[in-house]
Amino acid sequence: MLQRNRCYVVAEIGINHNGNLKLATQLMDVAHAAGCDAVKFQKRTVDVVYTAEELARPRESQFGKTTGDLKRGLELDRAAYDHIDAYAKTLGIDWYGSPWDEASVDFLLRYDIPYLKIASASITDAQLLRYCAATGKPLMISTGMSDFALTRRVVDCISEAGGEIACLYHCTSTYPGVPEELNLRAIQTLQRAFSHIPIGYSGHEVGVPTSVMAATLGAVSIERHITLDRSMPGSDQAASLEPAGVERLVRDIRLWERARGDGVLRIYGSELPIRDKLRRLDTLTPGSDTPQQERIAPGIPAINLM
Known about the structure:
The chain is of the alpha/beta class and 306 residues long. The protein folds into two domains: 8-259, Aldolase class I (TIM Barrel, Alpha-Beta Barrel), CATH 3.20.20; 268-306, no CATH class. The protein has twelve helices and ten strands. The chain has an eight-stranded parallel sheet with strand order 5-2-1-10-9-8-7-6. Helix 7 (126-134) links the parallel strand 6 and strand 7. Helix 1 runs parallel beside helix 11 and helix 10 (209-216) runs parallel beside helix 11. Residues 292-298 and 300-306 have low confidence and may be disordered.
């Protein structure tokens, strides 16, 4: 579960499983091996989310010749999610999903998941926001394609519906994102504006460093898409991290957590032998009982800094 003093790293599998349960479990293995805290999927009721015209549009894919063939082919069924749920328990990793419609909310709530995720594409759907808020599940909210005013309305809508926001993610919804549009300082803007809500970062950029930078700016959760190979078919693959990248992401975030300290200036015990070896004088330390003569080389006059 998410904590304020430890970054909650979420591996977004999304639809990168390409409708293949075996690939989905392989991606779960990648996330677990890298040390991620959670994996996330996406769930849609295709005929509700998309119009009939959109579904009939020509689009070549491994599933057929229309957009509808593709969208239906990408959806995992109940048996697949039963396996995902059981496998996540075996690995000891959290899993949850982004429902794009009310029926998908009900589908996901068949499982004992810790969160519901509201995707950036869904945050203007007030009906879906209220429906998710009414479940009582803590909500993870991405804010891509939004300015501050819209983000405020989203937060207010969920609050008025009695919902709990577990994390509000700064996000830029370009796949892949470019550094000039990541605007990482917006993390701090959100922290100041919504001090009662944990702020995270959902990234779609290529590479690892900028997501680690988001953690150093105080993001309590980092979410990144993952894949086995960025050249695989799929709209999200190019903005995803391959296994080595996922491992580096977690490694570097955990390094930051070890190195950030508490901000209190102190002398560490490991420094004492170096101090005694290298410092010529100790006349600034209050109450120092070290004879000054012991720190002055023969023939060199003492210089009093007090």
